[in-house]
Amino acid sequence: MRNYFLSRLGYMLVTLLIIVTATFFFMQLLPGTPFNNPEKLTEQQLLSLNEKYGLDKPIALQYFIYLGNLLQFDLGLSFQYEGRTVESIIGSRIGPSALIGLQAVVFGTAAGLLLGMISALKHNSFLDYTSVFIAVLGMSVPSFVFAALMQYYLGVKLQWLPAALWRGWEYTIMPSLALSVMVIATVARFIRTEMLEVLGQDYVVTARAKGLTEKAVIVKHVVRNALIPVVTMLGPLTVGIMTGTLVIEKIFAVPGLGEQFTLSIMVNDYSVIMGITLFYSSLFILVVMIVDILYGVLDPRISLKGEG
Amino acid sequence: MKKQFGQGMLLIMLIICAVLAGCNFDSEEGVEAEPGSSEEENKEQSTADEQAGGQVLKVAASAEIPTMDSVHAHDTIAFTVLNNVMEGLYRLGEDSNPVLGMAESHEESADGLVHTFTLRDAAWSNGTAVTADDFEYAWKRLMADEGHYASMMVNAGVLHAQDIIEGEKGAGELGVTAVDDKTLEVTLEMPNPLFTTLLTFPVFLPQNEAFVEEQGEQYALEAENVLYNGPFVLAEWNHDQNWLYKKNPDYWDADAVTLEEIQVNVVKETSTGVNLYETGELDRIGLSAAYVDEYSSSDEFQIIPRAGIIFVRMNTTHEVLGNANVRRAFDMVIDKEGLANVILNDGSVPLYGHVPENFSLSPEGVSFRELNGDFNKGTAEEAAEYFTTGLEEAGAEELTVSLLSSDAESHRKIAEYLKDQFETKLPGVTIDLQMVPFQQRLDQEKALAYDMVISTWGPDYNDPMTFIDMFVTDGSANRTGYSSAEFDSLVEQAKAEDDPSARYQLMLDAEKVLLEKDALIAPLVQNADAILQREKVKNIVEHPSGPDFTYKWTYIEE
């Protein structure tokens, strides 16, 4: 197990290095400069600004300087927010994104599980068709449509919930709900398919033949086995949602990371682009590792060995 | 399994709690600063709201404040905040002309080179007096730190500013000296008719040396790390979410300030703004074209012309576009009314000159646009005639040119419209559209790597010169290859002219050379803001350049 961890850690670092390198060099292809008001920037001003921020050095040298700073956990300063460190920008932006993301995943998974289980257990009934319909709707209608509709009806017309902004927990409800639609649909579809498959397995028949109650069969044998693929999918999905979603954050004026990431790319804020990419990929890799470990817990057939 | 699931849920709940705690909702920041006092703070907050009565304004900003350091400020959001919480020697008045601020009086030497300012009794928000040293310090810091707008010091013509930027002199040699606490002396390279106008620009704000040095790298990063001497103070600043102005009781002209509080929320989507306006969370919002029809009959709807312009640059080094008649034909053939009212439909106003309307008045009080009138207005037939003549002069039979445009939605629409106008109304013209990201458009524009390009420009200061001098030979904003000795000399004369009326006339003449004689560019439209504003909100003063708004004279009608 220890070997396994060490080798995974090694792979993780290599992967991160590749990501950093690729992002750094591809970023150079962005047209323009990270400096504000490029319309008015004269040649001379550009030269002196480049010199000040070390952008006049050869790209390769800049790359190694960046790596050196990275080893000391220094992500640099933002160009667009004068004097603010990249860490502080990520720090203040990740909270809101993570909160609405996490709420969306927790609620979405719970609702999705319920929907999927009902579907599978009442296969080919009216309930099944209804939940399949909901799932298809959730998959095919983009979340911003739900967001806009919710904002208009719940926020403006009925005034049950605040329409937008970020001042307290009640402000997180609508963004979380809008995000959870996709999670509900994905989880429900997955669980339904998996459970239907598991229900037909020999060991389920055995369990029933042993005289176990239907509840015991479903909880101990069916749901547990059906959960394995869901875990695989849920890990990356969680990271994706928690690290911010541009559109939902914009619609509800949530000060989240997804919105910041897009903004940084638009204005060539190099250090912030690098910082967020790095943050995102580390999180992603970490979660994939956790998912692998969870496999072992959920499914004894999968064992973790160092040589893998 | 059940047990595990229970543990999992517990873990998730714990994570949610942790995230919630780190989520800095509105009041969180204050709580962090003073642990344990949150309840008191809430009480304080609510009594403050009651005191504020109805004099509270709720507005939206399109982005976070990039910096509160006036030396590094470089965009209208930062300029607007700085303009309301600080004050320089002059500030922008209700008609956007400079009025005395921190300076009580301003004297000019006979040769126009030495300006002496006497400061009034005023204090920073920490109680120390605003002194002449604060100006000297901030201005020299601007040069030493190479702030984005250090070039403003050059525009103002302050002695040695140019040399300092070019690295030939040190920032300490800038021509500004604090003679004593109350007297500031500024020396210019040469007399500058624009000097007073430029002094309203936020880079000329004072900074208290002791405070800035004490804060070090933390200076201006949070609301409490800045000192204020303006009509308002920044009471709260929750990054990326909102900020709150409160009336500054120690401001020298506090009697003139009616508003008690201004709440600003960061809102990036127009539709979100509209919904917040509908629920009463905002008192004023900007509308996009899609909403104009829906709200245009409302009493709260307004169109406010702005000084930003959209125009077509034509590359004069191109063998056919180098011909003035061809350029004139392109300018004349465009139906600009149709462009503004049908295609854009966001309040934009058709533009037939280089300097926009509602921007500048002559010393006699007549607007620049009115004095010079419209250029190159004519029918499609006239345009076609010019075009045929021009083609002959250039020795060409037909013309295929590319039209470069940024891929922003409105520019895209303009580009497609122009292609259609040109190809259907001018014989033998083929237009290749080239849509690129904004930054690349700029790069290509500056490198003269285009035939025609849809460009934009906004004023840096409230004077026609900010538009006129763009096209001097080899000017950094020229980007057309244009070089006219006549035009250059008019600009040069205007810059040196002391008499305001004569100077204005020179600028009028320069625009005539640019458009009547040389038809260098095809002006398209002047921007406008379509807004919704509650009728009780009065006197938000808008400025064409630098900061967008001054709230000093704003009030809520009760």
What does this structure look like?
The complex is a heterodimer of chains A (308) and B (558). Chain A is mainly α and 308 residues long. Chain A has a domain at 95-259: MetI-like (MetI-like fold), CATH 1.10.3720. Chain A has helices at residues 2-27, 43-52, 59-71, 86-121, 126-140, 143-157, 173-199, 202-209, 214-242, 246-251, 257-266, 270-298. In chain A, helix 4 packs across helix 7 (173-199). The longest helix of chain A has 36 residues, at 86-121. The radius of gyration of chain A is 24 Å and the shape is flat. The model of chain A has no long low-confidence stretch (mean pLDDT 84). With 558 residues, chain B is an alpha+beta fold. Chain B folds into two domains: 9-263 and 534-556, Alpha-Beta Complex (Dipeptide-binding Protein, domain 1); 306-528, Dipeptide-binding Protein, domain 3, CATH 3.10.105. Chain B is 36% helix and 21% strand. Chain B contains 20 helices and 21 strands. In chain B, strand 19 (541-542) and strand 20 form a beta hairpin. Mean pLDDT of chain B is 88; it is low at 27-48. The interface between A and B is large, with 59 and 61 residues. Chain B: Its main location: membrane. Chain B: Residues 28-52 are annotated as: Disordered.
